[in-house]
UniProtKB/TrEMBL annotation:
Keyword Membrane: yes
Name under which the protein is recorded: Late embryogenesis abundant protein
Keywords tagged on the record: Membrane
Main localization category: membrane
Compartment list: Membrane
InterPro entries given in the database record: NDR1-like (IPR044839)
Protein's UniProt keywords contain rRNA-binding: no
GO cellular component terms listed in the entry, alphabetical order: membrane
Taxonomic lineage: Eukaryota, Viridiplantae, Streptophyta, Embryophyta, Tracheophyta
One of the GO biological process terms: defense response to other organism
Originating organism: Zea mays (Maize)
Amino acid sequence: MAVRVASLYALVYGQTGALDDVQVTVRVEARNGNTHSAAYFSRLECRLAFAGATLSVLHAYPFRVPARGVLPLAYVARAQGAPLGDAGSAAMETALRDDVVPFRVEGEARTRWKVAGIVGVDQWTRLACQLHFFWPNATVLPFRCSSKSKRHQSGAAELAAVVLVKVLAVVVLLGAVTVLVVVLLLQPRASYMAVRVASLYALVYGQTGALDDVQVTVRVEARNGNTRSAAYFSRLECRLAFAGATLSVLHAYPFRVPARGVLPLAYVARAQGAPLGDAGSAAMETALRDGVVPFRVEGEARTRWKVAGIVGVDQWTRLACQLHFFWPNATVLPFRCSSKSKRHQSGAAELAAVVLFKVLAVVVLLGAVTVLVVVLLLQPRASYMAVTVRVEARNGNTHSAAYFSRLECRLAFAGATLSVLHAYPFRVPARGVLPLAYVARAQGAPLGDAGSAAMETALRDGVVPFRVEGEARTRWKVAGIVGVDQWTRLACQLRFFWPNATVLPFRCSSKSKFLFF
């Protein structure tokens, strides 16, 4: 929000410690600097106060400001018989003695708008400023009154936090839904290995503490239970051991198992003269005496596959089991040997974690990119309110100051000039604005027959038009070298509703369409 015009129309202070009458008109502008999103203002409230005593409270219905738009709101703050208290009375007497009366304007509004048309931003914008009026001529001193702080000019930190938190919140929700879809609908299965067949073809144990000859055949199956994704196995290794002594190590080249496929791998584990050691020799003798010889099979492989064809899963699968053979007929006892544990049967917990973390990692990256795009490219601007003076001298040059001289403004009605205003020469810095507060007042100004008829018609219609004309001589430099000396002129019509004195929306500037500078 911003206050652009402020006028003091009446100030009557009695000796009873109260303001018998005070009337201040402020024009509050609701501004939306976003280029792609409209802004919605609600719960707008403005307060006029003096020395801590609230004189008037003004409200507005909710309204909408289009992208890069401005909506002016004219408020007439009037109070009669407002008590000031001892401190306020002393402050008013001091102000009247010093010929400068200060009033405080405070306001707030709730604003809602969207970044990139997607992420909603809901925040409060607040303004607070002092308006100083010369007395008794009621001229306002130059001032700036806006809820657009330096923090809001770029809004990078706040908007980055808002966008990032909202994006992450949405993404966490989407991640949870993704996990449910993956686990419940797609039903992913971890690839695994299993030993289905085992045979003992030879077993020769000497009395020297070594296995003279042993030959075991195992059929290892690589299984892929996924319905839509192939699985890739690599670094597969199987070991055959007895009583902690490794007898044989088997390897396989990397291979691929299609969706819902099985690849059988036949291994012949053979060892001759394998030393068992004292403990191993004792275990072998006990096994042969009992007629059951146990061998241990261990193996692992690295598997890679994709969930829904998008999220890659890379994990190790491991098996470990005992094979018991009757001796001397070499029949294997029933067994189960698989790397598919209860935890892997559904894979819900592990896959949920894998999918969720990967999705979150990708989304955090996308969120950072989104914030950069939003802040650097779209350049969002927080909506705000502001108050400035009636006439502004503006300099749009980036490298050169501008000098204004012989400035004159005229207020007229129906061709009759009512007031002429002047200003001393002044300087406006590069890309600067200098507000100038003027109070055009006329008493007993003759209008003539045509002017009187026009005034009567305007009062009857409830809209009074005034004409503002002005010119000033400007001097500035191009590239700091070439001097430019020219006149700038404005002429426009101001229409006021009567009797509430609200001004209709208008544009009044000496910047023509043909001047790029």
